[in-house]
Each structure stands twice: as C-alpha cells, then as structure tokens.
C-alpha cells in the first residue's frame, strides 16, 4: 500500500501548499511532482482489477482474434498503433497507461485553469482507476472533458473531433459529455444554448449508436454475465455526492451552489437502483460523481479561504478513505492492487 500512498501524498501535499501559499497558477514544469504517480502506473506489473483482462484483450487484438470485434473502434486503433512499435502486450498496456496518465493531468490543468483544487478531489479516486484499471475510461473521459472545454472558445470543430474520439474509445463517454455540459455551463441555460446543446447531442450520439449498436448490445450482455453487486453497492458514491452537494452550498458561487443537487438527483433517479443488480449502474454512478466534482471545482469561489480549503481537504479525506476501502478488498476477495509489483518482477 505504501507504493500508492507516498506518490499520491507527494503530489497532493504540493497541491495543498500551492493552493494555500501561492496565488500563481501551476506551470507545466511543476507537474514534475506528479512524475512518481505516472511512473507507478506505467511500470506496474499485473496490478489492477482489469489488467489481466486487458493483457488478454490486447493479445487478441494484435493477433486479430475473435474477441477484437467486441472492442470500441478507437481503442482498437490505439492498440494496433502501439503494436507497430512492439508485439509485447505488457509494453502496449504500459504505453496506454502512459497516455491515460498524461491525458489525466492535461485534463486537470485545462479544467482547473492551472489551480490545484481539482487534483485534491479526483486524484484519490480516479487516477489509479483510470491508469491501472479501466484504461478505456482513462483515455476517453479526459478527452471528453477537454472536448467540452473547446466550446468556451467556440472551437466547435475541435469539440466534435475530440468528442467522437472519446466515444470511439469508450461508448459511455457519450453520456459523460452531456453531464459535462451541465457541469461547465450550469443549469441556467438560454434557449439558444439549449438548442445548440440538443443539436450537439443528437449529432454526436445518433451516429455513435447507429454505427456501434451491436457493440453496445455486446457490452450489455457482457455485464449480464457478471456477478451482481450487493444491494448497498451504490451507497458509497451516493453518500459522497450528498456531501459534495453540502460543501458546494458553502464554497461555490451563488448562481451554481445548488448545481450539485442536479447530479445527486441523476444518481437517485437513474442509476442507484440499477447498481443493486449490475456493475454497470455502479459505474454510471461514479461517472455522475466524476462530473459533479468537476463542477464543484469549476464554480468554486476564488480566492479560496482557509476555511473553504478545509472543506475541500475534508472531502479529499473522505474520497481517499472510500478509495482505500476498494483497494484493500473487493466484494470479500483479495485486492488486485495489493501487493504492488513492478513489471520486471513478473515471472
């Protein structure tokens, strides 16, 4: 566990110091302090709940196996591009993890405008998950976040390119794009923005589901064969979402302090019930929480006071405890993250 704690604390301690004692935004060179986290993800062996599955999957794609037909086309292209450099699945996974880690910090920097609050909120939960477990999400979700940011500069073509790229790597990014629009624009939209949002949603979602409908059905079928989670599996993200809502009332600006309740209602209305019998619902709950924390950091009142920073630090601790619980054990089984071992330690 120490291999995860030390690099994470190293980066988060730097972010806390930067937030409290300096007023300048982060420079790209200062992400050197995040290098231990990146190397931890890239140099791992078969660590992570889905790493073994990804290794088999990459091997199938390289050999043009039958299982390759079930993958998103963008993910397949990435794997085949990496396979031009090496045919070793371990090296391919390391390259994909490196790409996911770089995109993660680009997303943090662009969304947070060089501030450090977002790192305190999402590093404890999603960095290891994005770079050492769900690599498709780790590549697709940051691309979706960066895509939505292009709309602020009215770079619509670039938005479409990045949005389609994210969906082609992970299809659920199509739902995340809609949540990110709410997180970035708020809920008080003009009629013109609603029309634009509907046009963007239709023009992005319809082609994706038209061309990838068979893959969507395969994913749903794949989830149906998995063992069902417990009836209380969705309580964790729901509780953290409720806490984030309460914090937002205090630390966000007046127009958007109740935006968190929109995401909480999304969890309750759409995904909490589903999470009691399929892991797909739990993943969707976590995706809503991801968008909610992005909104929380985006609409935070600046400059941040020490009391408000204390609220963020408390939420960071809550997220860290939730993540640590998932690290230690999963549904009573031994953790796939512990003990950590490097790639050269593999037999």
Note the beta-strand portion: under 5%
Report low-confidence residues grouped into runs of 5 or more.
Answer: none
Overall pLDDT = 82
What sequence of helices (H) and strands (E) makes up the elements? HHHHHHHHHHHHHHHEE
N-to-C terminal Cα separation, in Å? 21 Å
Largest sheet, if any? 2 strands, antiparallel
What is the tally of beta strands?
Answer: 2
Helix content: 55-70%
Instruction: Report the structural category.
Output: mainly alpha
Using only CA atoms, what is the Rg?
Answer: 20 Å
For the biggest β-sheet, the strand order reads 1-2
The number of domains is 1
- The number of helical runs is 15
Question: What is the overall silhouette?
Answer: globular
Plain-language structure description:
With 347 residues, the chain is an all-alpha fold. The protein has one domain. The protein has 15 helices and 2 strands. A two-stranded antiparallel sheet has the order 1-2. The longest helix has 24 residues, at 89-112. The two termini are 21 Å apart.
Top keywords for this entry?
two-stranded antiparallel ribbon, 347 residues, mainly alpha
Describe what is shown at a glance:
The protein has 347 residues and is mainly α. 69% of the residues lie in helices and 1% in strands. The chain is globular and about 55 Å long.
């Amino acid at each position: 566990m120490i291999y995860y704690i030390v690099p994470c604390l190293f980066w988060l301690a730097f972010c806390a110091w930067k937030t409290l004692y300096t007023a300048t935004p982060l420079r790209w060179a200062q992400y050197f302090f995040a290098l231990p986290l990146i190397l931890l993800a890239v140099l791992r062996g078969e660590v992570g709940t889905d790493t073994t599955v990804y290794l088999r999957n990459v091997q199938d794609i390289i050999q043009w196996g039958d299982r390759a037909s079930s993958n998103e086309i963008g993910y397949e292209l990435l794997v085949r591009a990496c396979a031009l450099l090496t045919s070793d699945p371990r090296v391919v996974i390391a390259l994909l993890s490196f790409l996911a880690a770089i995109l993660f910090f680009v997303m943090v920097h662009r969304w947070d405008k060089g501030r450090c609050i977002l790192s305190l909120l999402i590093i404890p939960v999603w960095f290891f998950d994005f770079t050492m477990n769900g690599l498709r999400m780790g590549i697709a979700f940051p691309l979706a976040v960066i895509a939505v940011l292009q709309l602020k500069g009215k770079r619509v073509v670039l938005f479409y390119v990045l949005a389609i790229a994210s969906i082609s790597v992970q299809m659920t990014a199509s739902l995340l794009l809609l949540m990110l629009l709410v997180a970035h624009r708020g809920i008080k939209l003009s009629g013109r923005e609603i029309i634009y949002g509907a046009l963007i949603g239709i023009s992005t979602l319809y082609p994706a589901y038209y061309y990838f409908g068979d893959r969507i059905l395969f994913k749903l079928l794949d989830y149906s064969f998995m063992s069902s989670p417990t009836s209380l599996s969705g309580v964790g993200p729901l509780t953290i979402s409720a806490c984030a809502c309460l914090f937002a009332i205090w630390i966000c600006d007046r127009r958007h302090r109740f935006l968190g309740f929109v995401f909480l209602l999304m969890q309750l209305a759409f995904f909490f019930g589903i999470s009691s019998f399929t892991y797909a619902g739990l993943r969707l709950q976590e995706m809503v929480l991801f968008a909610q924390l992005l909104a929380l950091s985006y609409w935070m009142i600046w400059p941040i006071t020490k009391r408000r920073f204390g609220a963020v630090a408390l939420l960071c601790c809550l997220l860290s405890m939730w993540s640590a619980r998932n690290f230690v054990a999963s549904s009573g089984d031994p953790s796939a993250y512990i003990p950590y071992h490097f790639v050269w330690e593999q037999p």
